[in-house]
Design goal:
The protein is 75% helix and 0% strand. With 179 residues, the chain is mainly alpha-helical. The protein is globular. The N and C termini lie far apart (57 Å).
């Protein structure tokens, strides 16, 4: 007899998470992903917004304000989703998975780091396409870091990518200016 589809999906999600989490046994990799994750807490984005203002004046301020507004909506959205879904983090449900850094909150779905990274990157790139060379790899690393560090399932990151993309697209569609 086959397991229900939801059980199979969770097993695959857990399997991917476990394999990725084992990579952190290498100290240099763990430190690198921990740094990326820490920067994704907000530091990187705040520095970027400030740099845009300093380097490009009012146009930079417009881009930074657009990013901040999108980030505010993302924050509200992901907090509500976490309270609604209450999905436990991978390390809390499978003792083979280790949390290599402390989580910011109790729940896993969706990944707030990834949701914000995707939304901020799309908005920033809409204003300054040249930033894609830095923001796309950084955003991919933020998403990967959340799984590798044992804090999220791959499906948390994929869902956050979709939500962040939709949110950024909506903010751009609403007519907020882009260069």
């Amino acid at each position: 007899m086959h397991a229900p589809p939801r059980s199979r999906l969770l097993a695959h999600d857990t399997g991917w998470c476990l394999r990725a989490n084992r990579a952190c046994a290498h100290g240099w990799l763990r430190r690198g992903f921990a740094l990326v994750s820490r920067l994704g807490d907000g530091v990187f984005w705040y520095v970027l917004m400030g740099a845009l203002v300093v380097l490009d004046g009012l146009d930079g301020l417009s881009a930074a304000a657009h990013m901040a507004a999108t980030g505010g909506v993302a924050l509200l959205m992901y907090r509500r989703l976490k309270r609604w879904t209450r999905r436990p983090r991978p390390f809390a449900t499978d003792l083979r998975i280790r949390a290599w850094v402390a989580p910011l909150d109790e729940y896993s779905f969706p990944s707030g780091h990834t949701l914000h990274a995707v939304a901020f990157s799309i908005v920033a790139i809409a204003h300054y396409p040249v930033l894609a060379i830095v923001l796309v790899p950084f955003t991919l690393l933020v998403g990967a870091s959340r799984v590798v560090l044992g804090l999220h399932y791959p499906s948390d990151v994929l869902a956050a990518t979709a939500i962040g993309s939709a949110l950024a697209a909506a903010s751009l569609w609403l007519g907020l200016p882009a260069v």
